[in-house]
Amino acid sequence: MTSPTPTPTAARAGGCQCGKLQFTVTGEPDYPHTCSCGHCQALSGGPLMSWVSFPLAGLKWTGAGDEPAWHYTWPDSRRGFCTSCGSQVCALDDGSTSIAITLSALGNPPDLVPVNQSYRENAVPWLTPIPDTRDHLHN
Question: What is the largest CA-CA distance in the chain?
Fold first, then answer.
């Protein structure tokens, strides 16, 4: 008996606040989560950022601005942002085969619900932490 052929994942479109930086991603979304690390807090101006990863091979920059400008926030990890409006849309680790996209850049799609919170020890005390629900995904 042969396995069924997987159905290709539909393209998802996203971009920055001003619309200059636009992209599509295809592939299976991986690990939607929030992050409260100091970098995410400082870069967003808020208590956390929300992320989801996609295969790097499924990313296509489609806007007039081509690719984002890049800024290293860790020795091997950089953030991509729009030079016009400053929106941060992605993060890419050197040598990675996946790219992290902010849920906000994707329009906060209802099917991508965060399953964990990274750096919860840095979380502000007035915001309820995202529970770790990863163990319940495959039950």
Answer: 54
Please tell me the distance from the alpha carbon of residue 65 to that of residue 85, in angstroms, as a whole number: 12
- pTM of full prediction above 0.85: yes
Pairing label, strands 88-93, 77-81? antiparallel
- Rounded to the nearest 5°, which phi and psi values hold at 5? -75, 130
What tens-digit pLDDT sequence spans the chain (139 residues)?
A: 444 444 457 899 999 999 999 999 999 999 999 999 999 999 999 999 999 999 999 999 998 878 999 999 989 999 999 999 999 999 999 999 999 999 999 999 999 999 999 999 999 999 999 999 986 544 4
